[in-house]
Write a structure and sequence with these properties.
Length: 318
């Protein structure tokens, strides 16, 4: 039986009000009938598939609900959410001013933050006609000047140059902001519709994504092991059928085995009866050996018998 594709095992349409245990029991019943496990290991793998796919669907639903909730929050608090992201970004302004300034210039909210800081520096300079150390550091950060390249700057010590510098920065940021307004509006529309990623994923969404990845990996593992087990079972059954239908081959004796003498082993030699040993009896000078070893005649008796035979023969003749 060919294993169906995982996408063919359509999850059963269940009532959202039923419990997780009931949904799992329903899916296990349907998928067991579809996959037809043949042993305990395959049955366990089908159970793993049912549990992991059900977890995956639950986590995906939870992720969509969380994303929609964030989208609804963005629809109401879009500007505040963007400004919160800007405040987190500028926390690294002293450590990496060049990178942070480039990121700030990418959004209207970042441009607004920089415009606000330049305007405050302009007001301080108009009152004091100079910058203190902290104010000089902020101005150099807004210019994106790397820390290692900072030294005496004539632009920050000349009243005319400082004013011109601030006015140039404010004009450039105003133009930059105008060019990013349309892009920001498009991003807001996508985020509010729930079709794109939010401005920043929450810790809850990150955790859901981790659990979702683990569940999907568990599903892929169980599906692959089930396919391997089914192939192994099919191969074993095929070999058993071939072994039953193929007659057993008789061993063929070689020519040398047919003509070689049979060697009698020591066990066979011991089992064979031995011939009785003939004892040699001493022969008497007056005896004649016969074919019977237990019988012998003396010479005198033989001679007497011969004489009697001669006499009888002669008597019969006369």
């Amino acid at each position: 039986m060919t294993q169906p594709h995982l996408s063919d095992l359509t999850p059963p349409i269940t009532d959202p009000s039923i419990s997780q245990e009931q949904a799992l029991a329903q899916r296990t019943l349907l998928w067991t009938a579809a996959l037809n496990p043949t042993d305990a290991f395959q049955t366990w793998l089908v159970q793993e598939l049912c549990e992991s796919t059900l977890d995956t669907e639950t986590l995906r639903t939870k992720l969509n609900v969380t994303r929609n909730r964030l989208a609804n929050e963005l629809a109401v608090d879009w500007d505040d959410q963007r400004m919160i992201a800007i405040e987190r970004l500028v926390a690294d302004l002293d450590d990496n001013p060049a990178l942070v300034v480039r990121q700030l210039r990418m959004t209207p909210h970042g441009c607004d933050w920089m415009i606000d800081r330049w305007q405050r520096l302009a007001g301080i300079y108009d009152r004091k006609f100079t910058f203190h150390t902290s104010e000089q550091i902020l101005a150099l950060n807004l210019l994106g000047t790397p820390t290692e390249l900072r030294g005496y700057s004539s632009e920050l010590n000349s009243k005319t140059k400082v004013k011109d510098l601030i006015e140039a920065q404010l004009a450039a940021l105003a133009d930059r902001r105008a060019s990013r307004v349309a892009f920001d509006a498009a991003q807001r529309q996508i985020a509010v519709s729930g079709q794109g990623l939010a401005l920043e994923e929450t810790d809850e969404m990150v955790q859901i994504r981790k659990e979702l990845a683990t569940s999907e990996k568990r599903t892929r593992w169980a599906w692959a092991r089930l396919a391997e087990s089914r192939r192994a079972s099919k191969s074993t059954a095929k070999n058993e059928v071939e072994a039953e239908t193929t007659p057993e081959a008789k061993p063929i004796k070689t020519f040398s085995a047919l003509v070689s003498p049979v060697e009698v082993g020591p066990a066979l030699t011991d089992a064979m009866p031995s011939e009785p040993e003939l004892k040699a009896e001493p022969q008497h000078p007056d005896t004649i050996p016969t074919s019977d070893p237990n019988h012998s005649q003396s010479i005198n008796s033989v001679m007497a018998s011969d004489a009697e035979w001669t006499r009888l023969s002669a008597h019969c003749t006369t």
